[in-house]
Amino acid sequence: MASRMQQPLFILSEGSQRTRGQAAQDSNIRAGKAVANAVRTTLGPRGMDKMLVDSSGTVVITNDGATILEEMDIEHPAAQMIVEVAQTQEEEVGDGTTTAAVLTGELLAQAEDLLDADLHPTVIVEGYHEGARLAQEAIDAMVLDIDLDDEILVQVAESSMTGKGTGDVTADALAKLVVDAVRHVADGEKINRDHIRLLTRTGASSSATELVEGVVIDKERANDNMPKSVEDATVAVLDMKLEVRKGESKAEYNITSVDQLNAAIAAEDTELRGYAKTLSEAGVDVVFCSKKIDDRVAGYLADAGILAFKNVKSSDAKALARATGAKRLGSLSDIDKSDFGHVDNVHVEKYGDDELTFIEGGDAAKSVTLFLRGGTEHVVDELERAMEDAVDVVIAALNKGGVVPGAGCTEIAISDHIRSEAAGITGRKQLAVEAFADAIDALPRTLAENTGMDPIDAIVDLRAMFDKEGRAGIIAHGQKGEVADPVEYGIIDPAAVKREAVESATEAATMIVRIDDVIAAE
C-alpha cells in the first residue's frame, strides 16, 4: 500500500511576516524606547522644541508630547501604543504627555534588563503592577493640604506652561487669564470643560490675548447690510435651511405662460419672505443657522434689521445654544418666546480680511472664550496648545483630587516609597518592583539633564534633601538648576496628572512586555 505524501498546512496568508520569542520582545522594546527618547529632551522648563515637517511641507514647532508623537507618523505597532499613552494622558488630564511617554520607555528599558536576567515576563508584569499600586499610595501621601485658591491655581497653570512657547507674554499673565476663565464657569463642585472655548487669530502680539465673557465665533454676517452690533439681543439658533423647500420626489413643472412663471416666482418669494417675517414678528434680533441661508432670505432679514449667520459649525451652534439659553430649532412652525435665548450684546469686528462675532453677557456669561493672539500661525498654534493644557490642569486640580509638588519632587517620593516597600516583597518579583522605582527615577534625572545639571549628582542631592526636608525638586535658574523646595517656588502639579501617567505608562509597558509573537500581514 503506497504511503500518502503529507501536504504542508498553511495557516498564515502568503507573505505574512512572523517574529517570535526574544526577537519579538527585543523589537518591541527597542521601538518603544526610541519613541520615548524622541520626546525626552522636551521635558521640563528647559525642554527643547521639535520641528516636525510632513510630506506636504507643513511645519509644526512644539514641545507638547502628544502633538509630537501624533505628528511623527509612527508605524511600528508597539511604538504606536506609546502614542496612544500620550493621547490618553492628553484626553484625561490635558498635561503630562511627555512624562507618560518617557516613563513608558524607561519601564521598557528596565524590563529589557530583567528579561536578560531570565525573569519571566509574567513576573515583570506582576512587579510593575505592584510598583504602580505603591506609586499611587505615594502620590496620595504627597497631596498638599491647602485650599485651592486663585494664587495656587495660577501656580498650577503656570507650571504646566513653563518651557512652552507663549510669545511675548509671560506664563504668569496667561495663567491668571486661565484661572479667571475657570472661576467664571464654575457652577457647583464640578466644572464643565465645554464652557471654556479657545479661539486663535494672528495679526497681533501674544500680549493682546484676552478673556471674553461669552462666545466668539469665526463667522461673517450673511449679508453686508445687516447691523454690525445688536444690544439686548433675542437669539434664535436654527438647524434648518432658510431656502425654498424641495419636494421628496423628483418632479417637473411645465410652465406655458408668463403669468404662470410670475405666479411661481411670487410663490417662491412669498415663502422666502415668510422666514424673515416669522422671525421678525417673533422678536428675534440675531439668527445663528447651522445650514444654508438663501441670499434672498439674507436680504429680507437685513431689511428687517436682523443680524444673521449661516453655515455655523455644529460645535459652535451647540455652544451658542448652551451659552444663550436658546433651543436648536429644526422648524419655524409653532415657535415660542421660550425657544429663544438672550444676550446683552452681539457685535462683529474686523480682523484683517475676516470678521469675528462676539456674543457677550446675559446667559452667555456662563461660557467664556480665551481669545488668543500671536504674530504668526506657529506662535498662536503653540500658544493654543499651552493654554489648552493650562485650562485642563486647573480643572483637573479642582475636579480630580488636589495638587502635589512638581519639579520631580513627587517622583522622588514615589521611588523612595517603592524601595522601602520592596524589601518586604519575596521572590523575583522584588527585582521588578525595584526596577519600577529605577524607571521613576529617570524622570527627575531627565529634568536635571535638560536643566544643565549633572543627573547623578542631582538625584543624590534630591534624595538627601527629600529625606531631610520631606520635599525636594529641580528648580531651573537661567542656564543651570538647583535642588530646593518646589512649593516655595510655586511649582505645583495636579495629582491627577501623576496618577494618570503612572497608570497609563504601566499598562502600555506591561502589555508590550507580554508580547512574544508578532504576526504581520503584507
What distinguishing features does this structure have?
522 residues, alpha/beta, GROEL, domain 1, GROEL, domain 2, GroEL, 3 domains, seven-stranded mixed sheet, three-stranded mixed sheet, 18 strands, Chaperonin_TCP-1_CS, TCP-1_chaperonin, GROEL-like_equatorial_sf
Assembly classification: single chain
Q: What gross morphology would you assign?
A: elongated
**What is the highest CATH level, the class of the largest domain?**
Mainly Alpha
Largest sheet: 7 strands, mixed
The CATH superfamily of the largest domain is: GroEL-like equatorial domain
The N- to C-terminal Cα distance equals 42 Å
The CATH architecture category of the largest domain equals Orthogonal Bundle
Low-confidence stretches: none
| Helix amount | 40-55%
Short précis:
Belongs to the TCP-1 chaperonin family. GO terms for molecular function: ATP binding; ATP hydrolysis activity; ATP-dependent protein folding chaperone; unfolded protein binding. The chain is of the alpha/beta class.
Molecular structure report:
With 522 residues, the chain is of the alpha/beta class. It folds into 3 domains: 239 residues, GroEL-like equatorial domain (GROEL, domain 1, Orthogonal Bundle), CATH 1.10.560; 102 residues, GROEL, domain 2; 147 residues, 3-Layer(bba) Sandwich (GroEL), CATH 3.50.7. The protein contains 15 helices and 18 strands. The two termini are 42 Å apart. This is Thermosome. Pfam families: Cpn60_TCP1.
Write the SSE topology:
Blueprint: E1 17-20, H1 21-40, E2 50-53, E3 59-62, H2 65-71, H3 77-93, H4 97-116, H5 121-142, H6 150-161, H7 171-185, E4 196-202, E5 210-212, E6 214-217, E7 229-238, H8 258-281, E8 286-289, H9 295-303, E9 307-309, H10 314-324, E10 328-329, E11 341-351, E12 354-360, E13 368-374, H11 377-399, E14 403-405, H12 409-422, H13 429-451, H14 455-469, E15 473-477, E16 480-484, E17 492-494, H15 495-513, E18 517-520
Parallel strand pairs: 4-13, 7-8, 7-10, 8-9
Antiparallel strand pairs: 1-18, 2-3, 5-13, 6-12, 7-11, 11-12, 14-17, 15-16
Helix pairs in contact: 1-3, 1-4, 2-3, 3-4, 3-15, 4-13, 4-15, 5-12, 5-13, 5-15, 6-7, 6-11, 7-11, 8-9, 12-13, 12-14, 13-14
